[in-house]
Amino acid sequence: MNIQEYNHSVDQFADGLYRFALKSIGDTEMARDFVQDAFEKLWVKIETVDYSKVKSYLFTTIYHAVVDNSRKQQRNKTYSQSLEANPSHEIASFDVHEVLEKGLNEMSEIQRNVVLLRDYEGYSYQEIGEITGLNEQQVKVYIFRARKFLKEYIGNIEAIL
Residues 53, 42: contact at Cβ < 8 Å? Predict the structure, then answer.
């Protein structure tokens, strides 16, 4: 990869990387830091990374940063679980985006990440497998379970409206 290709990859992928990081962790400053760190790591390895695989390399770097951050936060916070049967019925001011965000936050980290990569970023199952290190069947299973969880979390849409 040369410097022009690096600059082109920054222009082309920075927004998508930021969206993925932000949806995964919910912190704008940390998401910016993850994106900056990913491009810094790419810069250090500019000679060894093939330009055709730069997108996968960058998303993999962000994915690993999100996983590391999640593990770090889990160690630092006390765990309390209070998932109600259907929490969406208690939302007074209904906003579909808010309900989906809360549902995504209730998911396991791997389910949240694969569903974000598939449904928000539009990656194929194979590409998601390359980014996360899972095989294609595992990716499909995690996406199926994540979508099923969201369906149950949201419940009957008429009950929310």
Answer: no
Q: Domains along the chain?
A: 1-77 (1.10.1740), 91-161 (1.10.10.10)
Check if the beta carbon of residue 46 is closer than 8 Å to that of residue 91: no
- Tell me the mean pLDDT per 10 residues along the chain, length 161: 90 92 88 93 91 91 88 65 45 64 84 88 89 91 90 66 51
Q: Are 146 and 115 in contact (CB under 8 A)?
A: yes
| Chain mean position to CA 47 | 28
And the tokens for 141? Answer: 């299973």
Render the burial of 77-116: b for 16+ CB within 10 Å, e for the rest.
Answer: eeeeeeeeeebbeeeeeeeeeebeeebbeebeebbbbbbb
Residue 80 identity:
S
- The label of the residue with tokens 């998911």 reads 107
144 token code pair: 């199926």
- Decide if 120 contacts 23 (C-beta within 8 A): yes
* Angle subtended by helix axes 28-44 and 54-76, to nearest 10: 130
